[in-house]
Structures are given as structure tokens and as C-alpha cells.
Specification:
Elements lengths: L2 H39 L7 H17 L2 H18 L2 H7 L4 H41 L7 E4 L2 E8 L2 E11 L4 E10 L5 E13 L2 E11 L2 E13 L4 H6 L12 H10 L5 H11 L1 H16 L7 H29 L4 H25 L1
Antiparallel strand pairs: 1-2, 2-3, 3-4, 4-5, 5-6, 6-7
Helix pairs in contact: 1-2, 1-3, 1-5, 2-5, 3-9, 3-10, 5-9, 7-8, 8-11, 9-10, 9-11, 10-11
Main location: membrane
Membrane topology: Multi-pass membrane protein
Subcellular location: Cell membrane
């Protein structure tokens, strides 16, 4: 069999196995998410099936993207097992082909698809997920995503029954819970400008924002008033200040680096965003590791009871990889490990373990 023919044959088998499993799991995940969204729309005003369906479709790319590593793991295991069961792998090996040659097409597809995920699919899924979260926030009556980070610092918007506040801060000191270099614009319920307040520091204290050495200006007076301590009623706290920033899942690989730089300069925590960035970058290696693990499990000579053992081992491998990924992420978010190390560790460990198993299989 010519090399190109063999490559196309194994690649086609891989696409069929991985694509079929992906379609099945996608249907199950979307069905579960649709049920959850039906519960959500039942609790909000003007909620109906069309809203639940639209939320499910908007969230679909992001939800299914999380399935990709496990789809490649179990899909590749099934594909290699079927080739092994029909003795096709034995024939190929007897023809002098190494195990690396046999898994080459599947590994190539995994690596290419990994790059497609992080460069094209993830930006789309992040955008759609952000739109879905905005819709849910509006339906719940929450003015979501009120915090934005730009080159000139943090921008916040607060709207309630008394009017609207637009707050700009140069920096946020998380240890002291202080906004530094603060400017506040106050508007009434009709969006008419009331006053501007400038202060060097603003302390988050309960339901008030205490501005020290505040300078007030209003349209009714051209004179700037000085107030040692000026209190502004607010619902903002240091906790929901972090929560109201757009979550990492709503940002693509291209948006994360700039946001991390701006958020770090503004004093906002960036650990989750760093982990998200490195997890996306490690996707091709992670998918490649899934293929190597699948080959290590399913390329051994078939024997009685092998299918049951293979199923148990594959499920165990998937569970171990999931636990390792969760532990690594938790260590990174807690600051016990660098974000880059926490994100890359599962892919690197899985790859090294699979390569070791493959070398043992190839060389005995």
C-alpha cells in the first residue's frame, strides 16, 4: 500500500470515528443545556422556548469545545481498536511499518484541528458565549458586564433607581480595597448630567464609596468645591468588582494578551486569564497527547476480554486526565504554581506518559 494511500485510509477512519463520537456527545450536551435553559426562562419575564433554544445555540460552540480532547481520546481508541480487531494493524506492522507511521495521520489531524480550534473556533465561541451571557443578565434585570478595562484604567457603570454613575479609576489596590485616581460622573434617571467628582483615592466601604480629598464640579456652578471626604452610595464591592469583569471564557486567544496587560496595569487579578491563555495555546499538544494515549491502549495484540479491559482503561485514563487538569488549574488559581505551568502540565504529563508507553510497545 503506497504511503499516501495508507495516510488517507487511516485519516478517513479517524475523521469518521472522531466526527461520529463528537456528533453524539454534542447532541447529549445540547439537550442537557436546553433543559437547563428551559428552567432559566421559566423564572424570568417573557421567557419562552425560543429564548431557551437561542441561548443553547449561542452556548453550543463553547460547550462542545470542552469536549474536543475527550472526543479525540475515545474516538482514536475506537478507531485503533477496530483496525486492531480486523488485524489490519498486524498486517501493516508485518509490512515493516513502525507504530509511529501508523499513528502519524491521526496525530496530524489532531494537531491541525487543535490549531483550528484556538485560531478560528474559539474566537467564535467566545463571542457567542459573551452574547449569551449578556442576554441572560438582561433577562435577570442585571446590568451585566459593567466593568471594562482600557488603556486609561478601569471603567465601571452603575445604574439604579436614583440615577447612573460612570466611574473611571486609574488603578485598583486589591490589598487596601482602594480605587486610585478616581473620576465619577453622576447622572439622574433621565441621563441628565449632575456633577463630576475627582479624587485621588476612593475606599470601598459597605454600600458607600468614600472619596478622600474630593473635588466637585456641577453645571450649575463654575466653582470647584473641595470636600475632605465625600460618600457616594454604591453597590460595588471588591468582590463583585472582580466578578463583573468579563470572564475568561468570553475572550478569544487574540483578546487575552492585551486584556491581561491592561488588567494587570489596572491592579485587577489576571490569574484566570493567564491560565485560559496558556490552556488555549496547549490545545494542539493536548489533542496530540490524546492520540498517543489512544494508540498506547489500543494497538496491543487483541486477545479475549481485551475489549472490556480497553473500555475500563480508556475511561480510567479520561478520568485521571480530568482530575489532573482540575488539580493543576486549582493550583494555578490559588497562586501555588505559575499560571503557565498549571496550564501546560496536563498536556505535557499526558504526552510523556503516552510516549513512554509507545516506546515500550514498539521496542518491547
Amino acid at each position: 500500500m503506497p504511503p499516501s494511500t495508507l495516510f488517507r485510509y487511516i485519516a478517513l477512519r479517524t475523521v469518521i470515528a472522531v466526527g461520529g463520537l463528537f456528533a453524539i456527545l454534542t447532541c447529549l450536551v445540547l439537550l442537557v443545556d436546553l433543559i437547563e435553559n428551559m428552567r432559566f426562562v421559566g423564572k424570568v419575564a417573557n421567557g419562552d422556548f425560543s429564548l431557551a433554544l437561542s441561548l443553547t445555540l449561542l452556548r453550543a460552540p463553547s460547550l462542545t469545545q470542552a469536549l474536543v480532547p475527550f472526543v479525540f481520546l475515545f474516538g482514536s481508541i475506537w478507531m485503533f481498536y477496530q483496525l486492531n480487531k480486523r488485524s489490519e494493524i498486524s498486517v501493516m506492522r508485518s509490512a515493516g511499518l513502525s507504530v509511529w507511521r501508523l499513528l502519524g495521520p491521526t496525530a496530524f489531524i489532531a494537531a491541525v484541528f487543535g490549531f483550528i480550534v484556538i485560531t478560528a473556533i474559539d474566537p467564535l465561541s467566545a463571542s457567542l458565549m459573551s452574547h449569551a451571557e449578556t442576554i441572560k443578565s438582561k433577562k435577570q434585570g442585571i446590568d451585566g458586564n459593567q466593568v471594562r478595562v482600557f488603556g486609561d484604567g478601569i471603567w465601571l457603570r452603575q445604574r439604579d433607581s436614583s440615577g447612573q454613575l460612570i466611574i473611571n479609576s486609574r488603578n485598583f489596590d486589591e490589598q487596601r480595597e482602594v480605587l486610585e485616581g478616581v473620576t465619577i460622573w453622576r447622572f439622574d434617571t433621565e441621563s441628565a448630567f449632575l456633577e463630576r467628582i475627582d479624587a485621588e483615592e476612593a475606599f470601598l466601604s459597605g454600600n458607600t464609596l468614600e472619596l478622600h480629598e474630593a473635588r466637585l464640579r456641577s453645571p450649575a456652578s463654575e466653582v470647584e468645591n473641595y470636600v475632605p471626604i465625600y460618600a457616594v452610595v454604591t453597590t460595588l464591592t471588591s468582590g463583585n468588582l472582580r466578578e463583573r469583569v468579563s470572564p475568561p471564557e468570553t475572550m478569544s486567544l487574540w483578546q487575552l494578551p492585551q486584556f491581561i496587560l491592561l488588567a494587570d496595569a489596572a491592579g485587577l487579578p489576571t490569574v484566570r486569564y493567564n491560565i485560559r491563555f496558556h490552556e488555549l495555546c496547549s490545545t494542539p499538544l493536548k489533542l496530540l497527547a490524546m492520540v498517543l494515549i489512544a494508540a498506547a491502549f489500543s494497538m496491543r495484540p487483541p486477545r479475549t476480554g481485551g475489549a472490556i479491559q480497553l473500555a475500563v482503561l480508556s475511561i480510567l485514563a479520561g478520568f485521571v486526565l480530568y482530575v489532573l487538569s482540575e488539580i493543576s488549574t486549582a493550583l494555578g488559581e490559588s497562586g501555588l504554581a505559575p499560571a503557565s505551568l498549571a496550564a501546560w502540565t496536563p498536556a505535557i504529563v499526558a504526552s510523556l506518559a503516552a510516549i513512554t508507553a509507545m516506546l515500550h510497545l514498539e521496542d518491547g
